[in-house]
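Lab meeting, item 3. Inverse folding demo.
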C-alpha cells in the first residue's frame, strides 16, 4: 500500500473507531487519521503475533477489520490514560 492509501485507510478507520467507541472524543481530522494509521499498525502487529492474519491490500476486508479493531483498542487506551471523568470549566 502506498502512503496515500495509508492516509485514507487511517482517516476512515479512525472515524469508524470514533463512531464505535462510546463517549465524547475531542479529536481533530489529523489526530483521527493518526489514530487510524497507528491502529492499523497495532491491529496488524496483534494479528501477526497471534498468527491469524496480516495487513494486505487496500481493498482487503481483513485489512479494514484489523485497522478498525486496532483503532478501537487505541482509542480505548487513550480514554483510559486520559481519564474520562475530568470536567471542563
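The presenter then showed the designed sequence:
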Amino acid at each position: 500500500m502506498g502512503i496515500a492509501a495509508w492516509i485514507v485507510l487511517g482517516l476512515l478507520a479512525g472515524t469508524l473507531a470514533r463512531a464505535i467507541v462510546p463517549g465524547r472524543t475531542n479529536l481533530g481530522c489529523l489526530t483521527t487519521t493518526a489514530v487510524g494509521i497507528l491502529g492499523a499498525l497495532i491491529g496488524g502487529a496483534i494479528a501477526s503475533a497471534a498468527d491469524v492474519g496480516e495487513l494486505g491490500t487496500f481493498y482487503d476486508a481483513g485489512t479494514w477489520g484489523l485497522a478498525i479493531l486496532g483503532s478501537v483498542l487505541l482509542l480505548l487506551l487513550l480514554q483510559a490514560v486520559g481519564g474520562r471523568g475530568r470536567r471542563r470549566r
